[in-house]
């Protein structure tokens, strides 16, 4: 199908798929971590500047 370079081509596709899958997993796990840290900070009373001030 790919001729004499078939193994190289399929290996490149495989490495690319693994790299993209790893990056997607990293983004998902990092997003969960950031969301968890934000929730912990908000539970301690730390508020975001964009949330506005209640005493203003």
What is this entry, summarized?
Helices cover 68% and strands 0% of the residues. The chain contains one helix and no strands.
Molecular structure report:
The chain crosses the membrane at residues 6-29. This is Heme exporter protein D. It is a single chain. The chain is mostly helical and 56 residues long. The protein contains 1 helix and no strands. The chain has one helix spanning 6-43. It is rod-shaped, with a radius of gyration of 22 Å. The N and C termini lie far apart (70 Å). The model has no long low-confidence stretch (mean pLDDT 89).
Question: Secondary-structure blueprint of this entry?
Answer:
Blueprint: H1 6-43
Percentage of residues assigned to helices: 55-70%
Biggest sheet features: none
Query: Gap between N and C termini, in Å?
Result: 70 Å
Strand tally: 0
Q: What is the number of helical segments per DSSP (H or I, 4+ residues)?
A: 1
- The string of secondary-structure elements, in order, is H
Rg measurement, Å: 22 Å
Helix and strand composition category:
mainly alpha
The 3D shape can be described as: rod-shaped
Low-confidence stretches: none
Mean pLDDT: 89
Into which percentage range does the β-strand content fall? Answer: under 5%
Function: Required for the export of heme to the periplasm for the biogenesis of c-type cytochromes.
Family: Belongs to the CcmD/CycX/HelD family.
InterPro entries: Haem_export_protD_CcmD
Main location: membrane
